[in-house]
Amino acid sequence: MSRLSTLLVAGALALWLAPAAPAHSLLIASSPGADAVVTAAPGVALRFNNRIAEKLSQLRLLPPRGEPHVLPLGTGGAVDALEAPLPPLMPGRYRVEWRVLSTDGHVVSGAFAFSVSP
Q1: Distance (Å, rounded) from C-alpha 70 to C-alpha 63?
Q2: The sheet that has 27-31: what strands, in order across it?
Q3: Domains of the chain
Q4: Ramachandran region of residue 35, left (φ > 0), alpha (ψ -120 to 50) or beta?
Q5: Which residue of 4, 9, 50, 83 has the lowest C-beta tally within 10 Å?
Q6: Rounded to whole angstroms, how far apart are CA atoms 82 and 76?
Q7: Which one has a higher pLDDT value, 16 or 111?
Q8: Does residue 4 sit in helix, strand or coil?
Q9: Strand runs labelled E in 1-118
């Protein structure tokens, strides 16, 4: 085998055996769910596809009218989840905005809405 062939085989083998790089965090589930209609929502729970940095994460609730509220995050939960209690909610459409630090070091954000019925 020539030296070039040996280097190519070694390089291909190194790439094949290299661990996969962590990807950005993706929201895979939420409670309440996106576009859900609920009669009450005592809290918000979000689950991601990988570990997130809870201390560097944020959840905000945007009510139908009024100012956004930063929600207090629960502590000691799963490493891939965020949870926060909600204040009593009046009927209407609410938006939850989230921002997390992924394991790959990137800040990822997103939002979803749900409605509270009377």
Answers
A1: 11
A2: 27-31, 43-48, 81-85
A3: 22-116 (2.60.40.1220)
A4: left
A5: 4
A6: 10
A7: 111
A8: helix
A9: 27-31, 37-38, 43-48, 58-62, 69-71, 81-85, 92-101, 107-116
For 55, the token pair is 């201390």
Q: What is the pLDDT of residues 18-62, one digit of tens each?
A: 344 456 889 999 999 999 999 999 999 999 999 999 889 999 999
Residues in the chain: 118
Residue carrying the six token digits 């926060």: 84
- The reply to whether omega before 32 is within 30° of 0 (cis) is yes
In sequence order, which residues have a C-beta less than 8 Å from that of residue 7 and are 6 or more positions away? none
* Phi, psi at 65, each rounded to 5°: -135, 145
DSSP 8-state assignment for residue 105: S
CA neighbor of 49 nearest in space, from 82, 24, 31: 24
Give pTM, 2 decimals.
Answer: 0.77
- Measured over the CA atoms of residue 33, residue 35, residue 40 and residue 42, the dihedral's sign is positive
